[in-house]
Design goal:
heterodimer, A: 70 residues, mainly alpha, 3 helices, flat, B: 132 residues
């Protein structure tokens, strides 16, 4: 990516919007498409993936709340 | 257990959690206090998720859940795109031109009440993940 802050932020926002839009579409169409909750449940079926997801969750908390931003 | 007792217990738990999050986020970053407070919050969330799971076991996925291959693939592509782009930004410098999600939300997370609310949200996500 070019060294352009506005462009990079725009890509991040676009990706976030795509996630939100797809989630909204899955909820709108009922059970025809899997929502993010269904996807998480699917990922958690094998225990190693469940462990990885929990590790990712723990890292997220550590990253934001131990490191801090003051 | 009566409804009043249940409401009282729920209220007390909510107050305790809010107080705990407020205290945890008052700790100085990169100190043992911050590490212990965050780890304790995580352990409380995991414990609550396990207890909830035992009291109300998750239902077995319906056969319909296995017919979602296409939408699982779309979710996987979206997740890979988000993680890939975030990693790309992380490896580039300077951060001003290549912002990561955390560098963008750091400013919003600075006020103490927002940090405490974020901490509670993180705990709730842990309960959700373990409860399912």
């Amino acid at each position: 990516m070019p060294p352009d802050r506005a462009l990079n932020v725009a890509v991040l926002l676009l990706l976030g919007a795509a996630v939100v839009a797809w989630q909204a579409a899955t909820l709108w169409y009922g059970r025809r498409w899997a929502s993010i909750g269904d996807f998480l449940r699917f990922l958690q079926r094998p225990w190693p993936l469940r462990g990885l997801l929990l590790l990712g969750w723990f890292w997220l908390g550590w990253h934001f709340f131990v490191r801090g931003s003051w | 257990m009566g409804r009043t007792t249940q409401a009282l217990l729920l209220g007390l738990t909510g107050c305790a959690l809010a107080g705990g999050a407020w205290w945890a986020m008052a700790t100085e970053p990169f100190t043992w206090h911050a590490r212990i407070a965050t780890a304790a919050g995580g352990l409380v969330a995991l414990g609550a998720g396990l207890v909830w799971r035992r009291l109300d076991p998750p239902t077995t996925p319906s056969p319909a859940a296995d017919r979602h291959g296409a939408s699982y693939a779309i979710w996987a592509v979206l997740a890979a795109a988000v993680v890939g782009f975030q990693l790309h930004m992380f490896t580039e410098q300077p951060r001003q031109l290549y912002p990561t999600v955390s560098s963008l939300v750091d400013t919003w997370l600075q006020p103490h009440p927002v940090r405490a609310a974020g901490f509670l949200l993180w705990m709730a996500l842990g309960v959700y993940l373990l409860r399912r």
